[in-house]
Known about the structure:
Elements: E1 9-13, H1 17-29, E2 35-40, E3 46-47, H2 52-57, H3 62-65, E4 66-68, H4 70-75, E5 79-82, E6 86-90, E7 95-98, E8 103-105, E9 108-111, E10 115-117, E11 130-131, H5 136-148, E12 151-155, H6 159-170, E13 174-178, H7 191-204, E14 207-209, E15 214-218, E16 225-228, E17 233-235, E18 238-241, E19 245-247, H8 250-254, E20 263-265, E21 276-278, E22 283-285, H9 293-307, E23 321-326, E24 329-335, E25 344-350, E26 355-362, E27 365-372, H10 378-387, H11 402-405
Helix pairs in contact: 1-9
Amino acid sequence: MTDTGTRPRLVVVGNGMAGMRTVEELLKLDPGLYDITVFGAEPHGNYNRVLLSPLLAGDKNVDEIMLHPRPWYLEHGITLHAGDPVVRIDRKRRVVVARSGMEAPYDRLLLATGSTPFMLPIPGNTLPGVVGFRDLHDVDTMLAAARRGGRAVVIGGGLLGLEGAHALMRRGMDVTVVHVASGLMNQQLDLEAGRLLKDSLERAGLRIVLDAQASEIAGDEQVEAVRLADGGELKADLVVMAAGVRPNVALGRAAGLHCERAIVVDDTLQTYDPRIYAVGECVQHRRATFGLVAPVWEQARVCAAHLAGAGHRRYVQAATATKLKVTGIDLYSAGDIAGGAGSEELVLRDRHSGVYKRLVLEGSRVTGAVLVGDVGDGPWYFELIQRGADISNFRDRLLFGEALCAPAT
Protein backbone atom coordinates (compact mmCIF):
# COMPACT_ATOMS: atom_id res chain seq x y z
CA MET A 1 0.00 0.00 0.00
CA THR A 2 1.25 3.47 -0.88
CA ASP A 3 2.27 5.88 1.84
CA THR A 4 -0.80 7.99 2.71
CA GLY A 5 1.21 11.19 2.33
CA THR A 6 1.58 10.60 -1.41
CA ARG A 7 -1.85 9.22 -2.14
CA PRO A 8 -4.47 11.41 -3.80
CA ARG A 9 -7.19 12.50 -1.39
CA LEU A 10 -10.81 11.51 -1.96
CA VAL A 11 -13.35 13.36 0.16
CA VAL A 12 -16.88 11.96 0.29
CA VAL A 13 -19.66 14.35 1.31
CA GLY A 14 -22.51 12.20 2.61
CA ASN A 15 -22.25 9.02 4.66
CA GLY A 16 -25.37 7.39 3.21
CA MET A 17 -26.04 4.41 0.99
CA ALA A 18 -24.99 5.91 -2.37
CA GLY A 19 -21.69 7.39 -1.25
CA MET A 20 -20.60 4.43 0.81
CA ARG A 21 -21.59 1.92 -1.88
CA THR A 22 -19.32 3.87 -4.25
CA VAL A 23 -16.49 3.67 -1.70
CA GLU A 24 -17.09 -0.09 -1.34
CA GLU A 25 -16.87 -0.56 -5.11
CA LEU A 26 -13.71 1.57 -5.22
CA LEU A 27 -12.08 -0.51 -2.47
CA LYS A 28 -12.77 -3.67 -4.50
CA LEU A 29 -11.03 -2.17 -7.54
CA ASP A 30 -8.03 -0.55 -5.83
CA PRO A 31 -8.07 -0.48 -2.02
CA GLY A 32 -4.87 1.56 -1.66
CA LEU A 33 -5.47 4.18 -4.31
CA TYR A 34 -6.90 7.02 -2.21
CA ASP A 35 -6.61 8.53 1.21
CA ILE A 36 -10.39 8.62 1.95
CA THR A 37 -12.24 11.02 4.25
CA VAL A 38 -16.02 10.84 4.76
CA PHE A 39 -18.26 13.55 6.22
CA GLY A 40 -21.77 12.65 7.39
CA ALA A 41 -24.57 14.73 8.90
CA GLU A 42 -25.73 11.94 11.22
CA PRO A 43 -23.71 10.96 14.31
CA HIS A 44 -23.13 7.29 13.41
CA GLY A 45 -22.05 4.89 10.67
CA ASN A 46 -23.91 4.22 7.43
CA TYR A 47 -27.21 2.35 7.65
CA ASN A 48 -29.82 0.95 5.29
CA ARG A 49 -32.42 3.69 4.91
CA VAL A 50 -34.74 1.23 3.15
CA LEU A 51 -35.13 -0.59 6.48
CA LEU A 52 -36.36 2.41 8.50
CA SER A 53 -39.94 1.12 8.22
CA PRO A 54 -39.13 -2.31 9.73
CA LEU A 55 -37.16 -0.47 12.43
CA LEU A 56 -40.20 1.70 13.18
CA ALA A 57 -42.46 -1.36 13.22
CA GLY A 58 -40.17 -3.22 15.63
CA ASP A 59 -39.13 -5.93 13.15
CA LYS A 60 -35.51 -4.76 13.15
CA ASN A 61 -33.18 -3.09 15.61
CA VAL A 62 -30.59 -0.42 14.84
CA ASP A 63 -27.66 -2.87 14.78
CA GLU A 64 -29.47 -4.97 12.16
CA ILE A 65 -29.85 -2.08 9.73
CA MET A 66 -26.24 -0.83 10.00
CA LEU A 67 -24.31 -1.38 6.77
CA HIS A 68 -20.99 0.09 7.94
CA PRO A 69 -20.55 0.43 11.70
CA ARG A 70 -17.69 2.63 12.90
CA PRO A 71 -15.09 -0.21 13.10
CA TRP A 72 -15.51 -0.79 9.34
CA TYR A 73 -14.11 2.67 8.57
CA LEU A 74 -11.10 2.02 10.82
CA GLU A 75 -10.48 -1.37 9.20
CA HIS A 76 -10.32 0.24 5.77
CA GLY A 77 -8.25 3.25 6.82
CA ILE A 78 -11.12 5.66 6.18
CA THR A 79 -11.40 8.84 8.27
CA LEU A 80 -15.05 9.35 9.30
CA HIS A 81 -16.37 12.67 10.57
CA ALA A 82 -19.88 11.67 11.69
CA GLY A 83 -22.26 14.37 12.86
CA ASP A 84 -20.16 17.09 11.21
CA PRO A 85 -21.69 17.87 7.80
CA VAL A 86 -19.89 19.81 5.10
CA VAL A 87 -21.32 23.34 4.80
CA ARG A 88 -19.13 24.76 2.02
CA ILE A 89 -17.02 23.64 -0.91
CA ASP A 90 -14.16 25.92 -1.93
CA ARG A 91 -13.45 24.74 -5.48
CA LYS A 92 -10.64 27.21 -6.01
CA ARG A 93 -8.64 25.98 -3.00
CA ARG A 94 -10.02 22.42 -3.41
CA VAL A 95 -11.13 22.11 0.20
CA VAL A 96 -14.41 21.35 1.94
CA VAL A 97 -15.38 23.14 5.14
CA ALA A 98 -17.40 21.30 7.79
CA ARG A 99 -19.85 22.80 10.27
CA SER A 100 -17.21 22.51 13.02
CA GLY A 101 -14.85 24.68 10.96
CA MET A 102 -12.65 21.72 10.03
CA GLU A 103 -11.21 21.90 6.51
CA ALA A 104 -10.31 18.88 4.38
CA PRO A 105 -8.41 19.24 1.10
CA TYR A 106 -9.35 17.01 -1.84
CA ASP A 107 -7.98 15.86 -5.17
CA ARG A 108 -11.29 14.19 -6.00
CA LEU A 109 -14.61 15.02 -4.38
CA LEU A 110 -17.66 12.76 -4.31
CA LEU A 111 -21.00 14.40 -3.52
CA ALA A 112 -23.61 12.00 -2.14
CA THR A 113 -25.85 14.44 -0.30
CA GLY A 114 -29.05 12.49 -0.99
CA SER A 115 -32.41 14.14 -0.65
CA THR A 116 -34.51 15.86 1.98
CA PRO A 117 -38.17 15.18 2.81
CA PHE A 118 -40.58 17.59 1.15
CA MET A 119 -42.28 19.38 4.03
CA LEU A 120 -45.55 20.81 2.68
CA PRO A 121 -45.30 24.63 2.74
CA ILE A 122 -48.44 25.09 4.84
CA PRO A 123 -49.08 26.91 8.13
CA GLY A 124 -48.01 24.87 11.15
CA ASN A 125 -45.46 22.70 9.36
CA THR A 126 -42.77 23.47 11.96
CA LEU A 127 -44.88 22.65 15.03
CA PRO A 128 -43.49 20.04 17.44
CA GLY A 129 -44.95 16.70 16.41
CA VAL A 130 -44.48 17.32 12.66
CA VAL A 131 -41.77 15.04 11.31
CA GLY A 132 -40.36 13.77 8.02
CA PHE A 133 -39.56 10.09 7.53
CA ARG A 134 -35.98 10.11 6.41
CA ASP A 135 -33.51 9.18 9.14
CA LEU A 136 -32.97 7.53 12.51
CA HIS A 137 -33.81 10.75 14.35
CA ASP A 138 -37.23 10.84 12.63
CA VAL A 139 -37.84 7.23 13.69
CA ASP A 140 -36.92 8.10 17.30
CA THR A 141 -39.42 11.00 17.21
CA MET A 142 -42.16 8.72 15.89
CA LEU A 143 -41.42 5.99 18.43
CA ALA A 144 -41.65 8.52 21.27
CA ALA A 145 -45.06 9.64 19.94
CA ALA A 146 -46.22 6.03 19.59
CA ARG A 147 -45.30 5.33 23.21
CA ARG A 148 -47.62 8.15 24.23
CA GLY A 149 -50.34 6.71 21.99
CA GLY A 150 -52.97 8.84 20.31
CA ARG A 151 -53.57 9.71 16.69
CA ALA A 152 -51.18 9.99 13.76
CA VAL A 153 -51.83 11.52 10.36
CA VAL A 154 -49.49 10.45 7.56
CA ILE A 155 -49.45 12.85 4.61
CA GLY A 156 -48.58 10.87 1.48
CA GLY A 157 -49.91 7.55 0.19
CA GLY A 158 -46.76 6.38 -1.57
CA LEU A 159 -44.72 3.40 -0.44
CA LEU A 160 -42.91 5.24 2.36
CA GLY A 161 -46.10 6.79 3.75
CA LEU A 162 -47.96 3.47 3.76
CA GLU A 163 -45.08 1.61 5.39
CA GLY A 164 -44.79 4.31 8.05
CA ALA A 165 -48.55 4.34 8.63
CA HIS A 166 -48.69 0.56 9.02
CA ALA A 167 -45.72 0.57 11.40
CA LEU A 168 -47.30 3.28 13.59
CA MET A 169 -50.57 1.32 13.63
CA ARG A 170 -48.66 -1.76 14.81
CA ARG A 171 -47.17 0.41 17.54
CA GLY A 172 -50.70 1.14 18.78
CA MET A 173 -51.52 4.48 17.18
CA ASP A 174 -54.78 5.35 15.47
CA VAL A 175 -53.57 6.21 11.93
CA THR A 176 -55.06 8.09 8.97
CA VAL A 177 -53.31 8.42 5.59
CA VAL A 178 -54.05 11.56 3.56
CA HIS A 179 -53.17 11.31 -0.14
CA VAL A 180 -53.56 13.99 -2.78
CA ALA A 181 -54.11 11.57 -5.71
CA SER A 182 -57.08 9.34 -6.53
CA GLY A 183 -55.15 6.12 -5.94
CA LEU A 184 -52.49 4.90 -3.51
CA MET A 185 -48.92 4.52 -4.74
CA ASN A 186 -49.92 6.20 -7.99
CA GLN A 187 -46.29 6.29 -9.20
CA GLN A 188 -46.13 2.48 -9.24
CA LEU A 189 -49.73 1.26 -9.39
CA ASP A 190 -52.70 1.90 -11.62
CA LEU A 191 -56.08 2.83 -10.11
CA GLU A 192 -57.39 -0.73 -9.89
CA ALA A 193 -54.27 -2.03 -8.13
CA GLY A 194 -54.37 1.01 -5.84
CA ARG A 195 -58.00 0.25 -4.99
CA LEU A 196 -57.17 -3.37 -4.07
CA LEU A 197 -54.37 -2.09 -1.85
CA LYS A 198 -56.66 0.48 -0.21
CA ASP A 199 -59.31 -2.15 0.55
CA SER A 200 -56.73 -4.43 2.11
CA LEU A 201 -55.16 -1.68 4.23
CA GLU A 202 -58.55 -0.52 5.48
CA ARG A 203 -59.42 -4.07 6.48
CA ALA A 204 -56.16 -4.07 8.47
CA GLY A 205 -57.28 -0.96 10.36
CA LEU A 206 -55.82 2.05 8.56
CA ARG A 207 -58.03 4.97 7.59
CA ILE A 208 -57.32 6.35 4.11
CA VAL A 209 -58.52 9.67 2.67
CA LEU A 210 -57.90 10.10 -1.08
CA ASP A 211 -58.15 13.20 -3.30
CA ALA A 212 -57.36 15.21 -0.18
CA GLN A 213 -55.00 18.11 0.35
CA ALA A 214 -53.67 19.22 3.72
CA SER A 215 -53.99 23.00 3.95
CA GLU A 216 -52.93 23.69 7.55
CA ILE A 217 -51.53 22.00 10.63
CA ALA A 218 -53.28 23.36 13.68
CA GLY A 219 -52.00 23.59 17.24
CA ASP A 220 -50.61 26.08 19.73
CA GLU A 221 -47.45 24.50 21.09
CA GLN A 222 -47.90 21.01 19.66
CA VAL A 223 -49.71 19.44 16.71
CA GLU A 224 -53.43 19.09 17.38
CA ALA A 225 -55.06 18.60 13.98
CA VAL A 226 -54.59 18.56 10.20
CA ARG A 227 -57.03 20.77 8.27
CA LEU A 228 -57.93 19.77 4.73
CA ALA A 229 -58.62 22.03 1.74
CA ASP A 230 -62.24 20.80 1.59
CA GLY A 231 -62.84 22.01 5.16
CA GLY A 232 -62.41 18.64 6.86
CA GLU A 233 -60.27 18.24 9.98
CA LEU A 234 -58.35 15.25 11.34
CA LYS A 235 -57.26 15.24 14.99
CA ALA A 236 -53.55 14.45 15.32
CA ASP A 237 -50.85 14.08 17.97
CA LEU A 238 -48.23 13.27 15.31
CA VAL A 239 -48.01 14.31 11.65
CA VAL A 240 -45.63 12.43 9.35
CA MET A 241 -44.76 14.13 6.06
CA ALA A 242 -44.17 11.44 3.46
CA ALA A 243 -45.14 13.48 0.42
CA GLY A 244 -41.95 12.90 -1.50
CA VAL A 245 -38.35 14.09 -1.36
CA ARG A 246 -36.30 16.81 -3.02
CA PRO A 247 -32.70 16.32 -4.20
CA ASN A 248 -30.35 17.96 -1.71
CA VAL A 249 -28.47 20.29 -4.06
CA ALA A 250 -27.84 23.36 -1.87
CA LEU A 251 -24.14 22.56 -1.34
CA GLY A 252 -23.48 21.88 -5.02
CA ARG A 253 -25.41 24.92 -6.15
CA ALA A 254 -23.60 27.21 -3.68
CA ALA A 255 -20.27 25.86 -5.01
CA GLY A 256 -21.27 26.91 -8.53
CA LEU A 257 -21.82 23.42 -9.93
CA HIS A 258 -24.37 23.16 -12.73
CA CYS A 259 -27.69 22.20 -11.14
CA GLU A 260 -31.20 21.92 -12.52
CA ARG A 261 -33.61 19.83 -10.42
CA ALA A 262 -30.48 18.13 -9.08
CA ILE A 263 -26.71 18.18 -9.64
CA VAL A 264 -26.21 17.49 -13.34
CA VAL A 265 -23.78 14.64 -14.15
CA ASP A 266 -22.60 12.97 -17.34
CA ASP A 267 -22.44 9.23 -18.15
CA THR A 268 -19.39 8.84 -15.84
CA LEU A 269 -21.21 10.55 -12.91
CA GLN A 270 -18.86 13.51 -13.26
CA THR A 271 -20.22 17.02 -12.65
CA TYR A 272 -19.25 20.04 -14.76
CA ASP A 273 -16.14 20.25 -12.53
CA PRO A 274 -13.95 17.29 -13.60
CA ARG A 275 -12.62 16.83 -10.05
CA ILE A 276 -16.11 16.43 -8.60
CA TYR A 277 -18.40 13.41 -9.00
CA ALA A 278 -21.91 12.90 -7.63
CA VAL A 279 -24.10 9.83 -7.08
CA GLY A 280 -27.54 8.93 -5.75
CA GLU A 281 -30.63 10.96 -5.07
CA CYS A 282 -28.80 14.29 -5.42
CA VAL A 283 -27.98 13.75 -9.10
CA GLN A 284 -29.71 14.39 -12.40
CA HIS A 285 -28.65 12.30 -15.38
CA ARG A 286 -30.20 13.06 -18.77
CA ARG A 287 -33.12 14.87 -17.13
CA ALA A 288 -33.94 11.99 -14.75
CA THR A 289 -33.55 11.89 -10.96
CA PHE A 290 -33.42 8.70 -8.87
CA GLY A 291 -35.06 7.27 -5.79
CA LEU A 292 -34.72 3.50 -6.10
CA VAL A 293 -31.77 1.42 -4.96
CA ALA A 294 -31.05 -0.43 -8.26
CA PRO A 295 -30.07 2.61 -10.36
CA VAL A 296 -28.06 4.07 -7.49
CA TRP A 297 -26.05 0.83 -7.13
CA GLU A 298 -25.28 0.97 -10.86
CA GLN A 299 -24.20 4.61 -10.51
CA ALA A 300 -21.88 3.55 -7.67
CA ARG A 301 -20.24 0.88 -9.87
CA VAL A 302 -19.71 3.30 -12.76
CA CYS A 303 -18.45 6.14 -10.58
CA ALA A 304 -16.03 3.88 -8.68
CA ALA A 305 -14.59 2.60 -11.96
CA HIS A 306 -13.84 6.16 -13.08
CA LEU A 307 -12.42 7.17 -9.69
CA ALA A 308 -10.15 4.10 -9.91
CA GLY A 309 -8.96 5.11 -13.37
CA ALA A 310 -10.66 2.09 -14.95
CA GLY A 311 -12.99 4.39 -16.84
CA HIS A 312 -14.51 2.04 -19.36
CA ARG A 313 -18.01 2.07 -17.88
CA ARG A 314 -20.89 4.36 -18.73
CA TYR A 315 -24.06 4.83 -16.73
CA VAL A 316 -27.09 3.84 -18.79
CA GLN A 317 -30.59 4.28 -17.41
CA ALA A 318 -32.64 1.09 -17.49
CA ALA A 319 -36.24 0.13 -16.84
CA THR A 320 -36.77 -0.43 -13.13
CA ALA A 321 -38.91 -2.90 -11.26
CA THR A 322 -40.37 -2.46 -7.80
CA LYS A 323 -41.28 -5.49 -5.71
CA LEU A 324 -43.10 -4.53 -2.56
CA LYS A 325 -44.83 -6.16 0.32
CA VAL A 326 -47.13 -3.74 2.08
CA THR A 327 -48.98 -5.19 5.07
CA GLY A 328 -48.78 -8.71 3.68
CA ILE A 329 -49.92 -7.78 0.16
CA ASP A 330 -47.49 -8.62 -2.62
CA LEU A 331 -47.13 -5.97 -5.33
CA TYR A 332 -44.90 -5.82 -8.39
CA SER A 333 -44.54 -2.93 -10.81
CA ALA A 334 -42.18 -2.74 -13.78
CA GLY A 335 -41.55 -0.55 -16.79
CA ASP A 336 -44.02 1.99 -18.15
CA ILE A 337 -47.35 1.22 -16.49
CA ALA A 338 -49.16 4.22 -17.98
CA GLY A 339 -48.75 3.28 -21.64
CA GLY A 340 -49.06 5.73 -24.49
CA ALA A 341 -50.86 6.27 -27.77
CA GLY A 342 -51.22 2.95 -29.54
CA SER A 343 -50.44 0.79 -26.52
CA GLU A 344 -52.75 -2.08 -25.51
CA GLU A 345 -53.56 -3.70 -22.19
CA LEU A 346 -54.03 -7.29 -21.12
CA VAL A 347 -55.87 -7.54 -17.79
CA LEU A 348 -56.70 -10.42 -15.47
CA ARG A 349 -58.85 -9.88 -12.37
CA ASP A 350 -59.71 -12.52 -9.81
CA ARG A 351 -61.46 -10.63 -7.02
CA HIS A 352 -62.10 -13.78 -5.00
CA SER A 353 -58.39 -14.55 -4.60
CA GLY A 354 -57.25 -10.90 -4.65
CA VAL A 355 -55.18 -11.34 -7.82
CA TYR A 356 -54.85 -8.56 -10.41
CA LYS A 357 -52.51 -8.50 -13.40
CA ARG A 358 -52.20 -5.79 -16.03
CA LEU A 359 -49.67 -5.89 -18.84
CA VAL A 360 -49.02 -2.93 -21.15
CA LEU A 361 -48.08 -3.90 -24.72
CA GLU A 362 -46.74 -1.92 -27.64
CA GLY A 363 -47.02 -4.05 -30.74
CA SER A 364 -45.49 -7.40 -29.89
CA ARG A 365 -43.47 -6.17 -26.89
CA VAL A 366 -44.31 -5.88 -23.20
CA THR A 367 -43.50 -2.38 -21.92
CA GLY A 368 -45.09 -2.41 -18.45
CA ALA A 369 -46.54 -4.72 -15.81
CA VAL A 370 -48.56 -4.29 -12.60
CA LEU A 371 -49.20 -7.36 -10.44
CA VAL A 372 -51.12 -7.65 -7.17
CA GLY A 373 -51.40 -10.83 -5.09
CA ASP A 374 -49.63 -13.23 -7.45
CA VAL A 375 -46.24 -11.71 -8.27
CA GLY A 376 -44.24 -14.86 -8.99
CA ASP A 377 -43.91 -14.06 -12.70
CA GLY A 378 -42.86 -10.44 -12.08
CA PRO A 379 -39.14 -10.99 -12.79
CA TRP A 380 -40.01 -12.86 -16.01
CA TYR A 381 -42.22 -9.99 -17.23
CA PHE A 382 -39.43 -7.58 -16.29
CA GLU A 383 -36.94 -9.60 -18.32
CA LEU A 384 -39.31 -9.47 -21.33
CA ILE A 385 -39.51 -5.67 -20.90
CA GLN A 386 -35.72 -5.28 -20.68
CA ARG A 387 -35.03 -7.52 -23.69
CA GLY A 388 -37.80 -6.03 -25.81
CA ALA A 389 -38.77 -9.65 -26.50
CA ASP A 390 -41.28 -10.55 -29.20
CA ILE A 391 -44.24 -12.20 -27.43
CA SER A 392 -46.37 -12.84 -30.56
CA ASN A 393 -46.13 -16.62 -30.23
CA PHE A 394 -47.59 -16.74 -26.72
CA ARG A 395 -49.53 -13.50 -26.47
CA ASP A 396 -52.80 -15.34 -25.74
CA ARG A 397 -51.18 -17.09 -22.74
CA LEU A 398 -49.05 -14.18 -21.52
CA LEU A 399 -51.21 -13.32 -18.50
CA PHE A 400 -50.95 -16.87 -17.18
CA GLY A 401 -47.20 -16.66 -16.66
CA GLU A 402 -43.93 -18.15 -17.79
CA ALA A 403 -44.87 -21.80 -17.19
CA LEU A 404 -47.69 -21.68 -19.77
CA CYS A 405 -45.66 -19.65 -22.26
CA ALA A 406 -42.52 -21.75 -22.32
CA PRO A 407 -42.05 -23.53 -25.66
CA ALA A 408 -42.96 -27.22 -25.58
CA THR A 409 -39.85 -29.42 -25.41
